């Protein structure tokens, strides 16, 4: 509770947590001349910059280059044996991160916001008590409040797992060695990126997935091609398995599966999802309710159950991508100003940064058929794209789903080099409501990966 000696500071905007949506809104609001307090426990710039997107994609780049160098002979080059220097690898990753953290910190201060480093806890509606990292306490009340505390890696309740010192997507990037043997628990986006990354660094990697097949939310044919690419790169994939018990002894981890098999490894990486950072926030005092998993409950305007209190990013249950969090910022900014912007109908791109990349937007074939529409399906092997041949990167397949009657593009899945970049071309066409014929007949530069769209939309399989 707020004591009689606690002076309550009133501000126009109070942001709890400095992730992409929250920090962008805080800076934007402060630059307009309003008083803003943003509370952050210490991860300047948010999860993406410090322990997620940016450091992992930095290491993905290194792993891809190691794989390319190992096959440089096919390009007429002799580069010798490829060796991973862990010290330089970490310096590369930490250099990218530190530069972006410094940039964010400078932008925070230049915006005029009050950046408060500490731990916030709600003590009343729109009011937090902040235990400052350097000692002391502040009580701040916002005319509007935005909760942006994010998520942390989930550690499943498997006997012996916590005691076996497992790695997570965050701690694995601080390793002082490359494990000879690595077991990855979880076959989702995070698990697969790390699995292929460490295989590229020389680890023997096994992925344990409880699902019937890899990436069950993607079409089976596309996921099957990706699975084959991973196997080619030395990743062992075990499906329909669950971990029964984990134990570490004398530096060796033993993973017992529910089918009786036992695996040994130097380390086990747990990539089974993320939990919201809401425990200890005092949300009840703020009148903010959460769902059964602890995520803040919001409507399609990102408003919570409490007045003038909003939640954005991962903690609000939004798809866990930084680009979605940035769009959450746009929505809340508009709605704080009295608008009625909504999350409904957002065309969200999904990008998996394996090698080759998997990029998808819109409906899968399975989802499109479930709508009852009369659809056409196009598929193109990446090896048919001239640019892929010049790169000597011909693994993968492109797939498109189109409404037969309206010629509307319902969705695409692009598995191949630079797919995340090409995806934006299709997404733009979908935003504009263009028929697929505009991409089929468009004048696209040669030789580029995007040129493959000309051929994709003539490669009908049904």
Automatic annotation (TrEMBL):
Organism of origin: Streptomyces glaucus
Keyword Flavoprotein: yes
Protein known as: Mercuric reductase
InterPro entries from the UniProt entry: FAD/NAD-bd_sf, FAD/NAD-binding_dom, FAD/NAD-linked_Rdtase_dimer_sf, Pyr_nuc-diS_OxRdtase, Pyr_nucl-diS_OxRdtase_dimer
Family according to the record: Belongs to the class-I pyridine nucleotide-disulfide oxidoreductase family.
Keywords assigned by UniProt, alphabetized: FAD, Flavoprotein
Domain FAD/NAD(P)-binding: residue ranges: 12-326
Needed cofactors: FAD
Transmembrane annotation, as ranges: none
Residue ranges occupied by any Pyridine nucleotide-disulphide oxidoreductase dimerisation domain in the UniProt entry: 348-453
């Amino acid at each position: 509770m707020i004591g009689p000696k606690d002076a309550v500071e009133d501000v126009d905007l109070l942001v709890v947590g400095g992730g992409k949506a929250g920090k962008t809104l805080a800076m934007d609001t402060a630059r307009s001349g309003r008083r803003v307090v943003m509370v952050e426990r210490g991860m300047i710039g948010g999860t993406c910059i410090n322990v997620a997107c940016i450091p992992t994609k930095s290491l993905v780049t290194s792993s891809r280059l190691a794989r390319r160098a190992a096959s440089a002979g096919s390009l007429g080059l002799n580069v010798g044996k490829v060796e991973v220097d862990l010290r330089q690898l970490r310096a590369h990753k930490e250099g990218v991160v530190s530069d972006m953290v410094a940039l964010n910190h400078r932008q925070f201060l230049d915006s005029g916001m009050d950046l408060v480093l500490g731990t916030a806890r709600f003590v009343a509606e729109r009011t937090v008590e902040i235990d400052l990292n350097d000692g002391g306490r502040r009580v701040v009340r916002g005319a509007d409040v935005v909760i942006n505390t994010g998520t942390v890696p989930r550690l499943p309740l498997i006997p012996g797992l916590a005691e076996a010192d497992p790695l997570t997507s965050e701690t694995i990037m601080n390793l002082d060695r490359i494990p000879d043997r690595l077991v990855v628990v979880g076959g989702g986006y995070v698990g697969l990126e790390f699995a292929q990354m460490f295989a590229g660094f020389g680890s023997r990697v096994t992925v344990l997935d409880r699902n019937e097949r890899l990436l069950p939310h993607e079409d089976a044919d596309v996921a099957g091609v990706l699975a084959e690419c991973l196997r080619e790169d030395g990743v062992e994939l075990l499906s329909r398995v669950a971990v029964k018990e984990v134990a570490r002894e004398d530096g060796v981890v033993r993973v017992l599966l529910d089918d009786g098999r036992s695996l040994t490894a130097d380390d086990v990486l747990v990539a089974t999802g993320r939990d919201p950072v809401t425990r200890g926030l005092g949300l009840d005092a703020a009148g903010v309710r959460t769902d059964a998993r602890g995520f803040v409950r919001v409507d399609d305007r990102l408003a919570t159950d409490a007045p003038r209190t909003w939640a954005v990013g991962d903690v609000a249950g939004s798809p866990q991508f930084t680009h979605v969090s940035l769009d959450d910022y746009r929505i809340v900014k508009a709605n704080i100003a009295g608008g009625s912007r909504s999350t409904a109908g957002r065309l969200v791109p999904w990008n998996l940064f394996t090698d080759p990349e998997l990029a998808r937007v819109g409906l899968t074939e399975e989802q499109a058929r479930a709508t009852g529409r009369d659809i056409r399906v196009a598929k193109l092997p990446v090896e048919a794209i001239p640019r892929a041949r010049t790169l000597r990167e011909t693994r993968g397949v492109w797939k498109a789903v189109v409404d037969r009657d309206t010629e509307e593009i319902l969705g695409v899945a692009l598995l191949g080099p630079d797919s995340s970049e090409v995806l934006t071309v299709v997404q733009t066409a979908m935003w504009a409501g263009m028929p697929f014929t505009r991409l089929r007949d468009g004048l696209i530069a040669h030789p580029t990966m995007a040129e493959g769209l000309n051929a994709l939309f003539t490669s009908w399989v049904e």
